[in-house]
Fold this sequence. Notes:
heterodimer; A: 5-stranded mixed sheet; 3-stranded antiparallel sheet; 54% strand; B: mainly alpha; Cytochrome Bc1 Complex, Chain D, domain 2; two-stranded antiparallel sheet; 42% helix; globular
Amino acid sequence: MALSARVRLPERATRGEVVEIRSLVSHPMETGFRVDSFGRRVPRRILVRFSVRYAGRLIAEMDLRPGIAANPYVAFRFVADRSGELELRWQGDDGEELIERGQLEVSDP
Amino acid sequence: MIRSVVMLLPLLLAGIAHAEPSSDARVSGYHGLGDELRALQDDDFANPGMLWVDRGLRAWETPAGAEGRSCRDCHGNPESLRGLAARLPRWNAEMERLEDLDGLLRSCISERQRAAPPEFESDALLALATLVAHQSRGLPLAVDVDGPARAAFEAGRASFQRRRGQLDLSCADCHDRYAGARLRGETISAGMINGFPLYRLTWETLGSRQRMIRWCNQAVRAEPFEPDSADALALELYLAWRARGLALESPAIRR
């Protein structure tokens, strides 16, 4: 199954406002320990890293491990202090990568 | 996971054998979820089943087949299929057999879109089925079991009562007699079918009604039905009738 994500990114905020990013990515998070119905080992395939950049700065980073269930959901909040691009990036252990972007406009209160 | 559950069952059932049989209550599995999982199901963003709705929508827009037509070219918006999933399976008079959502989708894709139909339980078919079922969310299940569907319905009812497998248990043993009883700290549900296709945490993925039936057959070590067979569809029809009036929840969340 190809990687795909649902993301909810803030588009507008006033300076100093706390905003939220929500993300859900489709990924099997195969541990490499499971066997299929023919007794064959299912190869390991997991996401290893999730990171978020905001106006060029890294604001969140997370290592993912085999114990995490399939289709990981991550949400977090941060302070909107400038306008800029938001970039969410998931990286898999097999080199696959998914990037979602959005623009956040910040205005003065 | 399935394997470990299956191996534990004989032990577990010894533990529930003295539970009180419950009455014929039609209660959605939603009520056995606990607050956190109920909130997850209700959150249209975080509900992982919505990943399949998204994918189904993308497939809906994608041209395919001999004339390069998309579902939208012929059907318009997916909303045009609202109500359909709540009335399935139904009798197809021409074919003289029952058809469920997966079967209808496959036949439309092969006969009208003229593309290769996706395999049963494939991600592509689950995505379309979840998209279509989701359009009926909130509508009460209401299958037609009279007229030509009657014989299949009665066969499905008998199948639900029939003991099967090495554990010699019927569907009714667990979902009628012991519904509400505890099995290893989990409550056995009434086996209502209104959430499908749904996301099961045990599977870490989404599955169809027929996958659930297969899982339960395996749990008692019975032979699974052939996919899309008369036996499989008859039981599905009975299950849909058994859950009549319950609101369709797809994509629901279950343990």
